[in-house]
Amino acid sequence: MAKPNRQTPDAAASIADAIVQMQRHGLNSMSWMGVDGMERMRSLGDEAFNFLSERMKEDATLLHGLLHCRDLEELRRFQAEFIRTAIDQYTEATGRMIELGAAMVPGRQPRD
User: Fold this and answer.
1) pTM score > 0.90 for this model?
2) Where's the Phasin domain (predicted)?
3) Which of 9, 40, 50, 77 is most solvent-facing, going by the fewest CB within 10 Å?
4) Average pLDDT of 76-85?
5) What dihedral do alpha carbons 44, 50, 54, 59 form, nearest 10°?
């Protein structure tokens, strides 16, 4: 039978203390952002995930369309439309992300 390790509680407490210190340090380093900054950071994340979701839908639509193309002209047309849509969506998303990122700078408000 194994002997109980008497160092375990001290080691666990030491690890827990280290985690608390890291969290305190990490959260304090972001305190300058305030509630508004954190809300803007959340908006930036939401925008990124919404964009990725829309692009994945477009990719699925492309694959479905390519699967059902009957000739090369239809295939070319389908791919060209996909590329045009992708360029437009990436351009719009880049502009929105730049605005949201710039709004995270203290004292700067996003443009309407």
Assistant:
1) no
2) 21-103
3) 9
4) 95
5) 80
HSE-up (13 A, CA, CB side) for residue 111: 6
Residues 6+ apart with CB under 8 A from 96: 47
Tell me the mean pLDDT in the region 4-23. Answer: 71
CA distance 26 to 30: 7
Cα–Cα distance for residue pair 12/15, rounded to 1 Å = 5
In sequence order, the 6+-apart residues with CB closer than 8 A to the CB of 73 are none
CA separation, residue 12 to residues 5, 7, 16, 58 (Å) = 12, 9, 6, 49
Find out whether 52 and 44 touch, Cβ atoms under 8 Å. no
Query: Any idea how long the chain is?
Result: 112
For 15-57, the pLDDT digits (tens) are: 888 877 777 766 566 666 677 777 888 888 999 999 999 999 9
Q: Where are the alpha helices (DSSP H) in 30-112?
A: 34-67, 72-103
Report the C-alpha gap between 14 and 22 in whole angstroms: 12
